# Entry
Amino acid sequence: MPVTGAPTLRQRRLGAELRKLRERAGLSSTAGAAIIGIQQARMSMIEAGRHGVSVDRVHAMARGYSCDDADFIDALAAMTGRRERNWWDEYRELLSAAAVEFAEFEHAAVSMRVAVVTSMPGLLQTPDYARATFKKSSPSLRAHEVEHRVSFRMKRQAVLFRDPPMPYTAIVHEAALRMGYAGPDASREQLQQLIEMSELGNVTVLGVPFGQDDFPRAGQPITYAVGPVPQLDTVALDSDHGSDYLFAEAQLDRYRAVLDRLESCALPPGKTRDFIRRIAKNI
# Structure
């Protein structure tokens, strides 16, 4: 059945993966449609995430496309079905679609690695720090719009406390640790928050000091989300207009390498906590 409203990130990704499987099999969209007995126009809508597809049809497509990776097929089948209502749907009339779907992206991740250079990772921010950053948005936000965004960001942090806990690694450059967005008191509170969160069993914070010669060019925040199978890993690149989601194999390889280089420049967790404490004392 046609998707109601704009397709979600999950629906777009399912369609894109089905298209990739078809193209690897060397089949046209018309030939792919014939495998499951539908018109080419409907196949195009499925591959665009604008038309639903059943579990049975996903399995039929996989057979027709000569894909025998059972784990991957099961993961694709789990992405079918109607859109379920989740907590982030409450914000669809309050925030942009790009902001809301980032919560869906985080919710679907098995684990995450994040790298930031100028601001704290969203999942580790305090309310006051988040509020200060939103107040500096351009164009300016009204007071209630700032509070909606702060509330949304705090609710996103629940992924770090789910059962089982999601492994989360944040690589934070010294520039972000020293950036005084929120004023001295809130900045010190934010640094203390980083230390406390890094002591959770599933959260690792790695600090990158100034002067690391091997530091790769990586100005925008990078989030690498590990999926239920490697083919469903996703990279999100944050920007002023929202997030760009990348999942081509070459792109995933590239950003894994970037994150590996960033980690190689970083202090280990214990030394990172000491590093953050020294910075906090001088604010």
The first strand starts at residue 111 and ends at 116.
